[in-house]
Amino acid sequence: MSGQKPYPYSTTVPKESLPPFSEEGVKLVKSPDPEWQPGQTQNPPEGKVLSFDAASLEARERYGLMISGIVPRPIALVTSISKERKIVNMAPYSFFNALSSDPPTLIVSTIHNRHGAHKDTLVNARETGHFVVNIMSEHFIESANHTCGNFPFEVDETEYAGIKVTPAKSIDGVVCAHSLFAMECKTVQLLPLFNDAGQETACAIIGRVVRFHIHESVYDTKSKTIILEKYRPVARLGGVRYATVNQVFELPRPFFADGKAPPKPKI
């Protein structure tokens, strides 16, 4: 029987008490303190800072702090194919980010279950050397989220989530047809991670991007970049919460023509 398991790090609010999802797009606004000048102190909030030795916390506590404190996080909806039976696997990972653009490289970290079993994504990326990172946008967030269920090994999650895929062009894999931005990757390194007891508890997959897929509706042909207002990506927060981008502000980078820092400002 399928269902929804209560998540230990969430405040569950009844859906009927929530307002409907807002279709309001991205707004460009002022920064939080537009009058700030170099050298001025932006004071932290009042109150004391709590400090915890990471080794003194239980693994569950560390996990809860990291997923709720390192936010918002981009989400990699990873597709891969099993080596022997060629079964599609799809799963979202928010321990994910870019590492470099030259060479184009990204990292996806997979967490083993409590029995030490490896995720299908890791198994497939190791055995085939290929995987695809698809970025999640608002228009298919519910179906994409459904793929994170504890499906048995070598079950095609896309069939349960109603997600369509298309063949990859440069690797042995599939691309999520709903994603507006996707990257075909080749596995270049696996980095196993061990806890203090010496147990392997996670493994980071480092992938080299060999092909980009960009929906024409979000591609700016002049700047050759992604149009955020049309892209509408979704980010991961703590618990089972997600976030969208609705307010954006710009802050110029300091630049020193001679490469030397100017005199310290006097406030």
Q: Roughly how much helix do the residues carry, as a percent range? A: 10-25%
Which sequence of SSEs, written as H and E, runs from N to C? EHEEEEHEHHEEEEEEHEEE
Largest sheet report? 7 strands, antiparallel
Q: Name the CATH superfamily assignment of one domain.
A: Electron Transport, Fmn-binding Protein, Chain A
Distance between the termini: 65 Å
User: What's the CATH topology label of one domain?
Assistant: Pnp Oxidase, Chain A
The chain-level mean pLDDT equals 92
CATH class category label of one domain: Mainly Beta
Low-confidence stretches: none
Count the strands? 15
Spatial order of the strands forming the largest sheet: 3-2-6-9-10-5-4
Specify the overall morphology: globular
CATH architecture of one domain: Roll
Strand proportion:
25-35%
SSE class: alpha+beta
